[in-house]
Write a sequence for this structure.
């Protein structure tokens, strides 16, 4: 089973709709992240979370909100989706310490299309 | 300023040849980490190799090696003996520690095509 899972994997929605992307992890990591990937721009950080009580904005948080329901769950919401939010969204986790490199572990991605 | 710069949007390499993917970074920290990830067409992000800023030797993982030149702030990925399955996007990333939090920065990626 995957350590970091994302649901849904694909979603097509219409402008103005509310969308929630969910991320769950079984790695026991306290740090969680949401990124979006656009062609030619790499990954850009939307929000990140130290732990359940600590959530921080990344470089492109406008139009997004997040919820850290538990250590293992971190949801990303688009309150009113717009077409330029069409992208591939990744959830990632990292440990505070204890892993070899403290690298990030990524979910499989959610491909979101806003019409 | 860009934290991570990958200047090669796309590259071609002949199967079985070696290829170098460029990455430069910008940080004023003494302690940081450098990573390379592979993203095949299926979309997942696969961790390949890591170099710590205090590591004196270049990191190697199988056919992957990281050419770390600290003074030049470069962390190029070298893939030896390219295989068709190496065709993918490759991302260079850097980790800084800010307020006890690992913050990661990614480059825009290099699309590698391995020709048979």
């Amino acid at each position: 089973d995957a350590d970091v899972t994302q649901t849904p994997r694909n979603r097509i929605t219409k402008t103005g709709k509310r969308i929630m992307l969910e991320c769950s992890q079984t790695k026991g990591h306290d740090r969680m992240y949401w990124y979006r990937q656009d062609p030619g721009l790499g990954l850009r950080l939307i929000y990140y979370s130290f732990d359940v009580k600590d959530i921080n904005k990344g470089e492109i948080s406008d139009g997004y909100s997040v919820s850290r329901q538990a250590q293992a769950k971190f949801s990303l919401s688009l309150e009113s989706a717009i077409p330029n939010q069409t992208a591939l969204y990744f959830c990632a986790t990292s440990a505070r310490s204890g892993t070899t490199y403290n690298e990030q572990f990524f979910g499989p991605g959610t491909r979101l299309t806003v019409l | 300023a860009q934290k991570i710069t990958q200047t090669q949007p796309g590259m071609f390499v002949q199967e079985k040849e070696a290829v170098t993917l460029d990455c430069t970074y910008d940080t004023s920290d003494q302690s940081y980490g450098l990573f390379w990830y592979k993203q095949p067409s299926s979309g997942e992000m696969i961790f390949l190799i890591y170099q710590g800023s205090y590591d004196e030797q270049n990191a190697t993982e199988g056919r992957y090696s990281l050419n770390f030149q600290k003074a030049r702030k470069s962390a190029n990925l070298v893939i030896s003996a390219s295989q068709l399955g190496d065709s993918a996007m490759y991302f260079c990333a850097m980790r800084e520690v800010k307020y006890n939090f690992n913050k990661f920065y990614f480059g825009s990626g290099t699309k590698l095509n391995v020709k048979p």
Chain B touches chain A at residues 4, 6, 9, 33, 35, 37, 43-45, 47, 50, 52, 91, 93, 95, 100-104, 106-109 (CB under 8 Å). The mean pLDDT of chain B is 93.
